[in-house]
Amino acid sequence: MQVSLIPVATAANPDVLHETTTIVFDVLRATSTIVTALASGYRRVYPVADAGTALVMAHKHGFVPAGERGGDKIAGFPHGNSPLEFIGGPNVGISNDAQKCNVLILTTTNGTKAIRWAESAYKVFTGSLLNARAVAQAVLREGLDVSLVCAGTGGRFSLEDTLGAGFVFMEIMKHLNGEDSSRLAAGMAVDDLPIAAYELARFYYHDPLSGLMAGRHGQRLLRRGLEDDLRWCAQLNRYDIAPVLSGEFITTGNDYTKQ
Amino acid sequence: MQVSLIPVATAANPDVLHETTTIVFDVLRATSTIVTALASGYRRVYPVADAGTALVMAHKHGFVPAGERGGDKIAGFPHGNSPLEFIGGPNVGISNDAQKCNVLILTTTNGTKAIRWAESAYKVFTGSLLNARAVAQAVLREGLDVSLVCAGTGGRFSLEDTLGAGFVFMEIMKHLNGEDSSRLAAGMAVDDLPIAAYELARFYYHDPLSGLMAGRHGQRLLRRGLEDDLRWCAQLNRYDIAPVLSGEFITTGNDYTKQ
């Protein structure tokens, strides 16, 4: 099994994902928000690259639009991109149709674009610190080569996405080596980039929050008073859910969750 | 001051180096070998991308050819790319012209190509663990933005080059912050990639050899019985020399060395 890491999704050619199981990371905050929403009662999340499209879809179907641009909530959107907004689950009281309120339309600066970019993969999961172990186990079940895809920030390398990929790679190694994550399992081929990500994960293992605070984007969110978002996203393995892209939307993928 | 890190030299556009002071890293082993040779009595090292050109130059001028391809010594070359071959200094006994024996023509798979690729920078230094502090101080003296350029291995991300860049970034931070390397100095702008490299350096600070052993290329050298090369290259700040490209060749750059 080969494990590759793509440091900035949209800067690469998506052909590299061909016949691999892919995990997309936008740890601050899209993929952390997706797993939080799915764990809190939302049934589907539509990742949509364009804000206008998101609003049209939401109005047409009665779904809930959410998203940000440059970290700010989009004008006219009831929700931004903070996972904390979705912990309470869908507000079914505001509509007579609970089915529709269960559906989120999410558009973000980097994350939803990266998920759409990854569509050519055999299967696309979304990963974060919150569900590192769950997605590691999900991709191992597929038995294919694995692509860890970091969304990056504005087309540039992102520390927190690489850290997320490192934690998942650590969980893959633990699973294959029985808690000993310090050596590669037999038959595993990796570049140096997953190894560097893994070493970052080891470095921040006992304090993932420091890792999320160390990058530029984390610093920007801190300056906006969003430390609670970082604290939320820094919880390792809170959820046993591997969100998976199924056509146009992301679900818990019943095969992959024990919740 | 902005500090950038280019993870794989030849995969990027060299225009990004414009008006920056640049440090090129091929830690295993070209840039470790260059500083070792200069510290041991060689006066100049010509980095030459092509092996044929290297041999022609060596014969024409009586210089000493050295180099490798894929880690193996090149046929017809008296020296490979191990720093240990040059510790003894130039063998002036084999020639009547000590001046010529003092000059090395070096051609390697990744390192010399990366040095040539970086030529458009304002000034090009070569860095390694052996001289991390020296090159950090040298680039700070220039007062320009800094580009940390990793040679990479076969066009791919290299753990040991990134680690070398991280150690230099650590020394830059120490210098600016007075031994406190844990925060950015005022006016310093960095992407997440130098920060990730810096965290790698912190992780391996007390055991740099483990870092050199963790990457693919280090593993390959170990399999060839070259552990002593890795041990040599893992010595942090052994030399107070900042090799600098001056036209076609690299010298100690008298301005930058106290040896």
From TrEMBL, chains A, B:
The first-level EC class reads hydrolase
EC number of this enzyme: 3.1.3.71
Magnesium as UniProt keyword: yes
- What's one Pfam family here? 2-ph_phosp
Keyword line: Hydrolase, Magnesium
Give the residues annotated as coiled coil. none
- UniProt GO molecular function: 2-phosphosulfolactate phosphatase activity; magnesium ion binding; sulfopyruvate decarboxylase activity
| Required cofactor(s) | Mg(2+)
Catalyzed reactions per annotation: (2R)-O-phospho-3-sulfolactate + H2O = (2R)-3-sulfolactate + phosphate
Its family remark reads:
Belongs to the ComB family.
Q: What is this protein called?
A: Probable 2-phosphosulfolactate phosphatase
The organism is Sporotomaculum syntrophicum
Question: Upper lineage ranks?
Answer: Bacteria, Bacillati, Bacillota, Clostridia, Eubacteriales
